[in-house]
Amino acid sequence: MDTMGAAPGTGPNTGPMSVVRRIPRKKTVGDLPTDRTLVMGVLNVTPDSFSDGGRFLARAGTAVDHESAVHAGLSLHYAGADIIDVGGESTRPGAQPVDEQEEQRRILPVLEALFTGGAVVSVDTRHPGTAAAAIERAPGPEHLLINDVSGLMTAEHMPQVVAEGGVRVIVTHNRGDAQTMQSRTDYVDVVAEVIGELEQIRDRYRQAGVPAERIILDPGIGFAKTAEQNWELLRHLDRVVSLGHPVLLGVSRKGFLGELLAASEGPREPEGRDAATLALSTLAAQAGAWAVRVHDVGPTLDAMKAVAEIQSR
């Protein structure tokens, strides 16, 4: 195992930080494959995310063990993840909000080290201040994406921050925050309404000066939707793809899969949902999705390559 000097801001330790291996240069979005659906690996630096919350907390309490988080992120990178999606605030239904300062304390040292390690990074944040801090620390706009799941509650200044930073943005459909979104599932036609509301959010970014090709759409599976509404959207993912923007799908280990796979003792635990996640990610690739966001990178990458081989003939 190689070592590298600790990246600025990685915590009080100034000695070597363990990494998986060296790479020669930093990747950009332009370096990513264009002949298959991309794989975005999930790295939650939070105490309360539904699947892996608390995984990177220091033993002393709630402080983040940044070295462990960086090691996990680089492991995803070397396992083949095209993008590492780093979050410092849980967006699961019912999660407590986190202020910008705490969010940045959790993720900025991790971002800096991942950039040093050569990864393309997506920052999962609803805070414009955190987005701006991430943009400031990125080697350049082609190394970073902003992934904002706020939906219709997107912060007023977020489009301007994205436009000025020149980065790509993932626009997710949502109708509320973690406390309220699951009470806002009143749809007449969920597919048509999700598409219409996605276009509303997208248009805010376009009006702020973000080029259309830098806007990625996410139908927001699990955000302000019931299980059946999630399934209905998945059946019609091609309609979201037909809007002409890159489409990201994130279903990994989500609760509606736990309900589908439930046994007598209750819903399937998150770690037992990877096979179902892989099936849906494969279908998304067949429907033309630009990327899938997953916890289990290796098998997903294999599946994306297999779909691409079929589609290339």
UniProtKB/TrEMBL annotation:
It catalyses: (7,8-dihydropterin-6-yl)methyl diphosphate + 4-aminobenzoate = 7,8-dihydropteroate + diphosphate. Its cofactor is Mg(2+). Pfam families: Pterin_bind. GO terms for molecular function: dihydropteroate synthase activity; metal ion binding. Residues 1-23 are annotated as: Disordered. CDD domains: DHPS. Residues 37-305 form the Pterin-binding domain. NCBIfam families: DHPS. This is Dihydropteroate synthase.
